[in-house]
Amino acid sequence: MTPLTLPPGFPRRVKAIASDLDRTLIGEDYELHARTLSAIAAARAAGIQFVIVTGRMYRSVLPYLQRAGIDDLVVCYQGAIVADPVSGRFLRHVTIPLELARETIAAVEREGFQLNCYVDDNLYVAKMTPEAHSYAEHQRIPIDTVGELREWLPSPPTKLVVIGEPTALDGLALRLREQFDGRLYISKSLPFFLELASPEVSKGAGLGFVAEQLGFTAAETVAFGDGENDVELLDWAGYSVAVANADAKALERANFVCPPVQEEGVAQVIEAMLAAGVDA
């Protein structure tokens, strides 16, 4: 197997690697494979902090952290939560204000869509649908049905997610941006997931919080991503890498494009970094 060649300008000093999870580190089988696990372990052994930055719930990403032996802080819910996987404490938690959340739910339901609602790291829906069932299987987490979400909602949610056909969600996103105009973070995580959160939320903001806690800078960070919701992550880092299977917006933002997730492209970059003798 021919080793990956890093491009000119790849940083020589890297204190942190920040990576998205779905479609970046893991593919359609939702598994961390041996080469990726080995690369993560080697990076951490070299003194490089490894930060997962994901839209997933904390409880959904925790098994991956445990599998990889990662005890660095983790960014979840698009940056709304930063958690310590050792203690389980949430060090940052930015929610959608309750009345704004109810207004958002009403607007989405008027359009004929159902939502996933996240409160205290639990997932709630008004009723079970094939889409909700599929999402719960994808995230490997339980799901509770509560009836009318606006009436049930007891406290500000961490985020809301609309599941649907990609083109329909693109249209919904445009209309929601017009209606809420800066009052919500609105972005796709996967083509069929539209994420809604506080405007203070982004993967870049979450990673910035982690950097302050752990003592590294943007210039010392290499970030990996694939989706529209990774743009802020890629923009925050001093050097950004998109996997070849990435969304067009992520590809445009990246300094370098590595092999796709199916070929464990992130692992290939890490191997090349370590072989080149990057300084942590």
Structure report:
- The longest helix is centred in the middle third of the chain and has 15 residues, at 166-180.
- The protein has helices at 34-45, 58-68, 98-110, 130-139, 149-152, 166-180, 203-214, 231-236, 248-253, 265-275, and strands spanning 16-19, 49-52, 74-76, 81-83, 90-93, 115-119, 122-125, 144-145, 159-163, 185-190, 193-197, 221-225, 239-243, 256-258.
- The chain is of the alpha/beta class and 280 residues long.
- Helix content is 36%, strand content 21%.
- Helix 1 runs parallel beside helix 10 (265-275).
- The chain has ten helices and 14 strands.
- It has a six-stranded mixed sheet.
- The chain has two domains: 16-93 and 202-275, HAD superfamily/HAD-like (Rossmann fold), CATH 3.40.50; 98-197, Hypothetical Protein, Haloacid Dehalogenase-like Hydrolase, Chain: A, domain 2.
- The protein is globular and about 55 Å long.
- Helix 9 links the parallel strand 13 (239-243) and strand 14.
- The two termini are 26 Å apart.
Task: Chart the SSEs and their pairings.
Blueprint: E1 16-19, H1 34-45, E2 49-52, H2 58-68, E3 74-76, E4 81-83, E5 90-93, H3 98-110, E6 115-119, E7 122-125, H4 130-139, E8 144-145, H5 149-152, E9 159-163, H6 166-180, E10 185-190, E11 193-197, H7 203-214, E12 221-225, H8 231-236, E13 239-243, H9 248-253, E14 256-258, H10 265-275
